[in-house]
Design brief:
about 160 residues; alpha+beta; Rieske Iron-sulfur Protein; seven-stranded antiparallel sheet; four-stranded antiparallel sheet
Length: about 160
């Protein structure tokens, strides 16, 4: 491979990487708020989250004792979902804002989604989101992922936060 071909390849690779890394932010339509809280395994309200993979917990302003931003965007709350997958540090958890991104973008509405076993469903637009697939819309009119928050699991607690 010649030097000029190598440069073109490297520039193309860098450009592709930049586009891919920005793609998620472009689809993140729910505004950022401060979120930073911890759920411990000793809290009986959340025991299923630690012991029964595939379950979820709805976190709201009533859980302020856990930390900052438990109310989620516009007070709709946050969903914490436990998967059956095991990562390098134990169970894998996902956290999503409960605000439907489709209703927010199309109608400027802040609609709280519901959890119905396998799916997260918007009661207004009927978009079904998959909690085990980063909040990917599975059916309905929605095309945006649910707003994801970062999670980490220490074996005893789950930390949920965002990048702000």
């Amino acid at each position: 491979m010649s030097v000029s071909n190598l440069r073109i390849f490297l520039l193309f690779s860098l450009f592709t990487l930049l586009i891919i890394s920005c793609e998620r932010d472009k689809n993140d339509v729910i505004p950022d708020i401060t979120v930073d809280f911890i759920i411990t395994a000793s809290d009986p309200e959340f025991s299923d989250l630690f012991n029964a993979p595939g379950t979820s917990a709805l976190i709201s302003s009533a859980h302020r004792h856990l930390g900052l931003g438990t109310a989620g965007f516009d007070g709709n709350g946050i969903i914490v979902y436990s998967t059956a997958d095991i990562g390098p540090h134990g169970l894998i958890f996902y956290a999503y804002d409960r605000t439907c991104p489709h209703c927010y973008v199309t109608d400027s509405l802040s609609v709280a989604v519901d959890v119905d076993g396998v799916f997260i469903i918007c009661p207004k637009c009927s978009t079904n989101y998959a909690p085990g697939s980063s909040g990917l819309p599975q059916s309905g009119p929605g095309h945006y992922y649910l707003k994801n928050y970062r999670t980490s699991f220490s074996g005893y607690s789950i930390r949920v936060w965002n990048r702000r």
